[in-house]
Design a protein that fits this description.
The structure is a homodimer. By secondary structure, chain A is an alpha/beta fold. The first copy, chain A, contains eleven helices and 14 strands. Chain A folds into two domains: 107 residues, Ribosomal protein L30/S12 (60s Ribosomal Protein L30, Chain: A, 2-Layer Sandwich), CATH 3.30.1330; 155 residues, Alpha/beta knot, CATH 3.40.1280. In chain A, helix 7 links the parallel strand 8 and strand 9. Chains A, B: This is RNA methyltransferase.
Chain lengths: 274, 274
């Protein structure tokens, strides 16, 4: 396989990867992110996502990762430039990998253009993340939303960078089937989306199971941070507050578990009607 | 506050904490685990869990953690021995903490006696974890189960140690309201629990929403590892396989999200009947 060895931490390309692996700002500035693992690399290939580079861990290579790297390099060009394969020194690879003991493959993928808030997005179902800071939760939320049929994900400025490698990793390729809008405060969301704004709020409102009709038409499900829950700004734009009736002695659900319950209750109701 | 300073990595108590923080085997051998954070410390206090020691990060102390440490020390004895408070050097604290930048408080708690498989447990609803290795997922699963009213958690040998500090942290105190049975293979589970064994299986079976009646009587919901899903041994003891109807282009749900959907669909059906 035609590939470029990188063995030095002072290599410019490595230095850029390192920045992107650590900083949301660098992701936006450079216009790309890193996705780790065989599963994500295959999902990116299936979704025909522009891959700029494939990064293999030099000491961890096997036939499966080599074949996949070769196939991606053969098929993919970004702005007329053929995708390159790099063999990266093991220790340097670990420095930029979002997981320990991974499969030894990462891809450098172009971020999509910032989506224009067109009419299709306006009338979509939306998952709105209000300050969800944990990368693992944010990724699981994207994965769950897309699996439930909700493909537009919007997030406030306080939410984790949704293109961060750790979020990519935990979403397991769901990014490639989603429209992602970042840096949207609740008041702006209200102007972008026509759907009914539903606040998942453990502190009150209506029982999600007992309440009828909230699933009709497009919805904008709003989920808040662990601990504080939804911000006042989010509650202000809510058309309805809904809670999940959990056991009385227990306190709350993890935000990703709560979203799974809400988004799949929506899906259940809609499937039932068909 | 009466407290003992620990500043050396060669302190025996610290060395034991370090072992317990890193090794499930050490947890079982020593008979205790570490729970990090204000929330867990408060939950343990509310649940009257035996706390052997409170560990404060020496350089991170504030009035809230100090007061809580003092209150736990005043109230708690384990086998006649008064609970001690320790001020632990910052760097040593970080070495044993399951999170970075935490609140600077950990508690050393006695593991409960291994629960006897009595008649009450036999007739309970159960969540059975078949090889779930990720500690964050395992903790979220316990939290979700307890919130859904399922208080018995059983796990195969390949599942993460459910008393590991990272699992404790992610379950947010749900351990204290649960009965936890570890090292139970599927065939043994079948002899311990009377409930109907339900396999959450993305590969087939019946649609969880369309299928009627599975929620009646006690159930044993079985959830498999990310990737491979349920083992053959688990599928063999299943009375029924159920799948969540996700969007066709998407592949699967995170195991903790899938469990949230299944356990709360069970809860919804049972609440509806009342």
């Amino acid at each position: 396989m035609l590939a470029i060895d990188i063995t030095s931490a002072s290599n410019d390309r490595f230095k850029t990867w390192k920045k992107v692996s650590a900083s949301p700002r660098a992701i936006r500035k450079e216009g790309f992110t890193l996705a780790e693992g065989l599963h994500l690399a295959m999902a990116a290939r299936d979704a025909r996502v522009p891959v700029r580079a494939v990064i293999l861990k030099a000491g961890r290579r096997d036939a499966e990762t080599d074949d996949l790297a070769q196939a991606i390099a053969d098929e993919s060009t970004v702005q007329g430039v053929q995708t390159k394969v790099f063999f990266l020194d093991d220790q340097l690879f670990e420095e930029i990998s979002p997981v320990e003991h991974g499969a030894g493959i990462m891809i450098e993928i172009d971020l999509p253009e910032k989506p224009a808030a067109d009419d299709r997005i306006r009338k979509s179902d939306v998952l709105y993340l209000d300050g969800v800071q944990d990368a693992g939760n944010a990724g699981t939320l994207i994965r769950t939303a897309v699996a439930s049929g909700v493909r537009v994900i919007a997030a406030s400025r306080k939410t984790a960078s949704l293109w961060a490698p750790k979020v990519m990793r935990s979403a397991m390729g769901a990014h490639f089937g989603a429209v992602i809008l970042e840096g949207i405060e609740p008041s702006e969301a209200k102007t972008l989306f026509d759907g009914r704004f539903l606040a998942a709020d453990a502190r009150g409102g209506h029982d999600i199971y007992a309440e009828e009709g909230w699933e009709k038409g497009p919805t904008v499900w709003m989920m808040g941070a662990e601990g504080p829950g939804l911000s006042d700004a989010a509650l202000e734009v809510a058309d309805e507050r809904l809670y999940i009736p959990i056991e009385s002695e227990t306190e709350s659900l993890n935000v990703a578990a709560a979203a799974a319950v809400c988004l799949f209750e929506q899906r259940r109701r809609r499937l039932r009607v068909r």
